[in-house]
């Protein structure tokens, strides 16, 4: 069961062409008033979800695009966005 | 496994409604902590909760390598004590842990790597851990099967030679510790999943399990690759961890050809020969987080290619078994051991990646002291969780080229 991912530019490709870029943690926190704790949270901390999570990928050996997608970490398969996420970019 | 026969370590115990301490995870770290709690600190009213069976996690899947030549001054003494404990535990538990201290050879494939090794060796020697730098010819003399030709993908420049390390029988450690736990009154509850951790007023009050609620003032989260998910989903505490599948395999049994543990960072490959004659070998982790513990063709091919290069006598030898387990990786390749922050009575021992076997003896001892006294032992102080927000990451890797989930 090999991983394939859907690049927004190149379409569905072999997972080994991509570089994992971490759990999606929302926008980068603003510099103003940024505490070491909040920064650490953004940079290092993970939820380690057992199931479907939104995450960043880079098409490293392809077009180079960065994008987010959803993957089930118990099956290592890309999945459709959950209902609540539909319509969001 | 759950049949009528009595388990090796004693009779099955009734799950009580309260314990002085509850340990989540019947792996190496949970068993070792419980053993020392009961034996050294007289805290015998202890329950180990294990979702499946003891040894189900990394405890029963690792490649059993032990060594003490870590890189930083905070880590080396802990691993040294762990290494020194194997012969002691073998006697104490009255269980043959099959410690084969055949020595470890860590191959270096560039002058930069040789330089980095000099630094690591100096640290080891400073802490009384035997470790030497040897050149390619000396490595070949120790391991005649080694290919030191310049004509391979990553030619061998030399090696870090660590004679006191080697292999310990991982299943024996699980069984021996379980026996030791039971002898001192610890209850081991298999097929008992922890489903929630309860607290009130900033203090731990209990644990919910699939078989009912337990009152307790102390909880240790030592669930290996599952710890980070437990910490977040039960308590909302995030950890700097990525959980990745790591794979290993053994070949058909061969006549004795390899009497050291040999590893190579550049090839992402390590190998040793078991007492049965199989070549046990492992590699790097999957490049993305997952809980599958599945094997991949990608990796089998990688392993065959790497071994054919630096141990060419293995060309054509068949792999017999392959399996996977979880590695919980931190950004600085060092674990998180902490307690009473942010909840009194909550202890964590996780982020061991692929170092959780070699460390479990000493860590069990110190985590037990931490839990019994409430005070963090000096040895564990550097490993607290807040080091990440204080930007005090440990330098267990020589260089971070990319910050990736396997760091
Ligand atoms: C292929 C492979 C090779 C490795 N090689 C080495 C090596 O050579 N040297 C080395 O030092 N380390 C090695 N490791 C790492 C080592 O195996 C782990 O770091 C170690 O097992 C961690 O011990 P632990 O007790 O924390 O967790 P584990 O041994 O994983 O035990 C955790 C236990 O918790 C249980 N659990 C999970 N969730 C719950 C819950 N909710 N309730 C109750 N129980 C739960 C699991 O079923 C499991 O039995 C390797 C690992 C793998 C997978
Ligand atoms: Zn692309």
Structure report:
The complex is a heterodimer of chains A (89) and B (407). With 89 residues, chain A is mainly beta. Chain A has one domain: Folate-binding superfamily (Folate-binding fold, 2-Layer Sandwich), CATH 3.30.2270.10. Chain A contains one helix and six strands. Chain A has one helix spanning 36-43, and strands at residues 4-7, 11-14, 19-23, 52-58, 66-72, 77-79. Chain A starts with a strand and ends in a 10-residue tail after the last strand. Chain B is an alpha/beta fold. Chain B folds into two domains: 21-62 and 171-240 and 332-387, FAD/NAD(P)-binding domain (3-Layer(bba) Sandwich), CATH 3.50.50.60; 104-163 and 242-329, D-Amino Acid Oxidase, subunit A, domain 2 (D-Amino Acid Oxidase, Chain A, domain 2). Helices cover 26% and strands 24% of the residues of chain B. In chain B, the strands form four sheets. Chain B has an eight-stranded mixed sheet. Bound molecules: flavin-adenine dinucleotide and zinc ion.
Describe the secondary-structure layout.
The complex is a heterodimer of chains A (89) and B (407).
Chain A lengths: L3 E4 L3 E4 L4 E5 L12 H8 L8 E7 L7 E7 L4 E3 L10
Antiparallel strand pairs in A: 1-2, 3-4, 4-5, 5-6
Chain B lengths: L20 E4 L3 H14 L4 E4 L15 E2 L9 H17 L11 E5 L2 H16 L5 E4 H7 L15 E5 L3 E2 L2 H14 L3 E3 L4 E7 L2 E7 L2 E4 L3 E3 L5 H9 L6 E10 L9 E4 L4 E5 L5 E7 L11 H14 L8 E11 L6 E4 L6 E5 L9 H14 L34
Parallel strand pairs in B: 1-2, 1-12, 2-8, 4-14, 12-19
Antiparallel strand pairs in B: 3-7, 4-6, 5-6, 9-10, 10-11, 13-16, 13-17, 14-15, 15-16, 18-19
Helix pairs in contact in B: 1-5, 1-8, 2-8
Bound molecules: flavin-adenine dinucleotide and zinc ion.
List keywords for this structure.
heterodimer, A: 89 residues, mainly beta, Folate-binding fold, 4-stranded antiparallel β-sheet, 9% helix, globular, B: 407 residues, alpha/beta, FAD/NAD(P)-binding domain, D-Amino Acid Oxidase, Chain A, domain 2, 2 domains, 8-stranded mixed β-sheet, binds flavin-adenine dinucleotide, binds zinc ion
């Amino acid at each position: 069961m090999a991983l394939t991912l859907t690049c927004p530019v190149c379409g569905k490709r072999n997972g080994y062409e991509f570089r994992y870029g971490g759990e999606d943690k929302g926008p980068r926190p603003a510099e103003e008033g940024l505490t070491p704790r909040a920064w650490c949270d953004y940079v290092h901390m993970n939820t380690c979800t057992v199931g479907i999570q939104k995450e960043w990928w880079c098409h490293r050996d392809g077009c180079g695009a960065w994008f987010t997608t959803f993957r089930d970490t118990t099956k290592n398969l890309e999945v459709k966005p959950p209902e609540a996420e539909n319509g969001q970019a | 496994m759950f049949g009528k026969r009595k388990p090796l370590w004693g009779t099955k115990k009734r799950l009580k409604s309260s314990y002085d301490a509850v340990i989540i995870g019947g792996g190496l770290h949970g068993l070792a902590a419980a053993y020392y709690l009961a034996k050294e600190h007289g805290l015998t009213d202890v329950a180990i909760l294990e979702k499946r069976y003891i040894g189900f996690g990394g405890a029963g899947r690792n490649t059993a390598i032990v060594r003490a030549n870590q890189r930083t001054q905070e880590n080396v003494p802990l691993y040294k004590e762990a290494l020194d404990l194997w012969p002691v535990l073998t006697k104490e538990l009255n269980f043959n842990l099959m410690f084969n201290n055949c020595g470890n050879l860590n191959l270096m494939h560039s002058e930069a790597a040789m330089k980095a090794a000099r630094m690591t060796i100096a640290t080891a020697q400073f802490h009384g851990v035997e470790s030497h730098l040897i050149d390619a010819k000396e490595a070949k003399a120790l391991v005649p099967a080694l290919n030191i030709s310049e004509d391979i993908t990553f030619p061998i420049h030399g090696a870090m030679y660590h004679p006191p390390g080697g292999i310990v029988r991982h299943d024996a450690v699980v069984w021996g510790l379980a026996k030791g736990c039971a002898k001192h009154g610890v209850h081991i509850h298999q097929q008992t999943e922890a489903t929630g951790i309860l607290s009130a007023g900033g203090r731990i009050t209990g644990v919910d399990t699939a078989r009912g609620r337990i009152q307790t003032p102390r909880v240790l989260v030592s669930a290996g690759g599952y710890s980070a998910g437990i910490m977040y989903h039960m308590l909302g505490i995030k950890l700097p961890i990525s959980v990745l599948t790591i794979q290993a395999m053994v070949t058909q049994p061969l006549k004795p050809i390899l009497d050291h543990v040999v590893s190579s960072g550049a090839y992402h490959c390590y190998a040793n020969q078991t007492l049965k004659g199989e070549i046990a070998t492992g590699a790097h982790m999957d490049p993305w987080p997952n809980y599958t513990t599945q094997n991949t063709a990608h990796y089998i091919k990688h392993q065959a290619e790497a071994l054919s290069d630096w141990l060419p006598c293995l060309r054509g030898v068949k792999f017999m078994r392959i399996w996977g387990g979880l590695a919980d990786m931190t950004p600085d390749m060092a674990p998180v051991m902490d307690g009473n922050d942010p909840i009194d009575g909550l202890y964590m021992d996780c982020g061991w990646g692929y170092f959780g076997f070699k460390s479990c003896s000493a860590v069990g001892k110190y985590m037990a002291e931490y839990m019994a006294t409430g005070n963090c032992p000096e040895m564990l102080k550097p490993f607290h969780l807040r080091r990440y927000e204080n930007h005090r990451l440990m330098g267990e890797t020589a260089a971070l080229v990319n910050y990736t989930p396997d760091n």
